[in-house]
Amino acid sequence: MFKCLLVNKDEDGYRTSITELPEESLSQGNVLVNVLYSTLNYKDALAITGKAPVIRSFPMIPGIDFSGIVEHSESDEFKVGDKVLLNGFGVGEKHMGGLSQKAKVNSDWLIPLPESISPVQAMSIGTAGYTAMLCILALEKNGITPASGKILVTGATGGVGSFAVKLLSLMGYSVVASTGSSEQHDYLTDLGAIEIIDRAELSAPGKPLMKEKWAGAVDSIGSHTLANVCASIQYGGAVAACGLAQGMDLPASVAPFILRGVSLLGIDSVMRPRADRVAAWKKLSEILPATEMESIATVIGLEASIEVAEKLLNGDVTGRVVVDVNK
To answer: Which of 145, 176, 207, 309 counts the highest number of beta carbons within 10 A?
Structure first.
């Protein structure tokens, strides 16, 4: 038996609780992992609270990330005792997830934990930091360098945004942070932002083309915000889009793309090929000091996950939330 967070939906309604289950209830996979840490992402909070149809089948253990140690393996790629991590692949949505003391998954969903990163540090980074790094690598692949100019990060106090600001700053970029949280300016400055703008400047309907302000951007907001960001990118610049906090729509014009040569780069972290995952985590392990990983995260126990999920959706959580599943 193992302890987990379990979401159910039946004739009695939608409910989430802490419970114990037998190993036989886990998803089918060829690697059994003793989970040490998971996280609370925005998607996890939606799944836990039922505010959006994230979960595809019930009952379900939420949690799209986890780090842990291999307990049993039928794969040649991993052996007992290996430290591993997982991001995405429908875990916590279609397959039993990481907010649990045990997880059974396919070996090709796992990657080895980089030696310089501990299990708790890996989840301090989690899908948020991993997605932020995918965005940055995509910008670099499209020719964006620190010499290109300022980089805008929207939703800068969220998980992805916080990491994007910190990582870009560590890599030598001049970062402009967009946020609706005026009380978080010191937090963003500490992360490395050289300038902070109010998200209201971007969130309302705008013009097809606007003043060229930024060489590139990392956007986790979507909708009008993404449209206005694209309209404000310098000639030949690029925007890495990875979120939809404002909406899934894109009320934009083709003008930035065909008149300024702007590139819109879609960033998927869920089904990303392993080579991209390994590259992103390798870069993270090289440039992110352990102290930075720890300072950006708060560690809670499994029991607190439901309450904190509500706070996260209400915008009352800054930075990352790590869940110690054995606490």
So the answer is: 309
